[in-house]
Specification:
By secondary structure, this protein is an alpha/beta fold. Helices cover 50% and strands 15% of the residues. The chain has a 6-stranded mixed beta sheet with strand order 1-2-3-5-7-10, with helices on both faces. It is globular, with a radius of gyration of 19 Å. 35% of the residues are buried. Bound molecules: acetoacetyl-coenzyme A (CAA). Acetoacetyl-coenzyme A binds next to α3, β6 and α7.
Length: 272
């Protein structure tokens, strides 16, 4: 485990990114968008690098949770408008514009938290929604303003936003480009909670670190099971959850977790 972990860390140390900052804090990997002169616009290079950084975290046994953030000022102001402005339809279609590089987030098995401060617009809001949950600072602002530049959301905005906040508000936001603040986002169910800016980075890290202490099989199963709710009927989803729940009784970590509760001590999970 430690040899594997050292190898993964060496690979990560060698990899340098132009548009991302990469950090490890304990078992948490932090990926920060780093295009300060372009409001962290999601260029092709940035989304490709994001895919690589996420793949590294998936393969690095030392990292158990990833935080994606844009730093304090802006999460991301959407796809790079300057880069895509002259694209034509055959190009967009042939390169399957957006799908190929962007969807990596939703394919990761390890939990990913979006930590949103400032604007998360267009593709920025869509990237945040691809993560497992969103924690917002009180400066966060969310919107799908694509209609104002002659296009529509293209990285799942009309679909994921509708599932998060319901048809009426999603329709209004997408049809008008109206931007909502952190409080409205929390009221609508888009974000799990709002944290004051001064404590934001620390609090998001605490949440990630907490998740990193739990048994990884349970964490993976919870993620898979919650995501299943979006893909299936209630009865099939419950059947899926029940089978996963029952399967945890084959793990040592279930025995350890329950024994620790009864003995009034902290559990020592071993991911098996
Ligand atoms: N793409 C490329 N460049 C962008 C950008 C974007 N999405 N957003 C901002 N920038 C650039 C600006 O052009 C500007 O560059 P210059 O200094 O070279 O002029 C720089 O970042 C600073 O931006 P502003 O001067 O506009 O900063 P502001 O504080 O006045 O406004 C903002 C901030 C409200 C976020 C504003 O920049 C804005 O509205 N950005 C565009 C938002 C948008 O329409 N996003 C949707 C993109 S389409 C999409 O995402 C499709 C999809 O579904 C995937």
């Amino acid at each position: 485990m430690s040899t594997q972990s050292n190898t993964a860390r060496k690979v990560q140390e060698k990899m340098s990114f132009n548009t991302l900052l990469i950090e490890e804090k304990g078992n948490v990997g932090i990926i920060t968008f780093n295009r300060p002169n372009a409001q962290n616009a999601l260029s092709n290079e940035l989304t490709q690098e994001l895919g690589i950084a996420l793949e590294q975290n998936e393969n690095n046994p030392h990292i158990r949770v990833t935080i994606i953030t844009g730093g304090e000022k802006v999460f991301a102001a959407g796809a790079d408008i300057k880069e895509m402005a002259d694209k034509n339809y055959p190009q967009a279609y042939q390169e399957d514009f957006i799908t190929r590089t962007w969807e990596k987030i939703s394919q990761c098995r390890k939990p990913i938290i979006a930590a949103v401060s400032g604007y998360a617009l267009g593709g920025g809001c869509e990237i945040a929604m691809m993560c497992d949950f969103i924690i917002a600072s009180d400066s966060a602002k969310f919107g799908q303003p694509e209609v104002t530049i002659g296009t529509i959301p293209g990285a799942g905005g009309t679909q994921r936003l509708t599932r998060f906040i319901g048809k009426s508000k999603a329709m209004e936001m997408c049809l008008t480009g109206r931007v909502i603040d952190a409080q409205e986002a929390e009221r609508s169910g888009l974000v799990s909670r709002v944290v004051p800016q001064a404590k934001f980075a620390e609090e998001v890290l605490n949440v990630a670190q907490k998740i990193s202490t739990f048994s990884q099989p349970s964490v993976f199963m919870i993620k898979e099971s919650v995501n299943r709710a979006y893909e299936t009927t209630l009865s099939e989803g419950i059947r899926f959850e029940r089978r996963l729940f029952q399967s945890t009784f084959a793990t040592n970590d279930q025995k350890e977790g329950m024994a620790a509760f009864v003995a009034k001590r902290q559990p020592n999970f071993k991911d098996n």
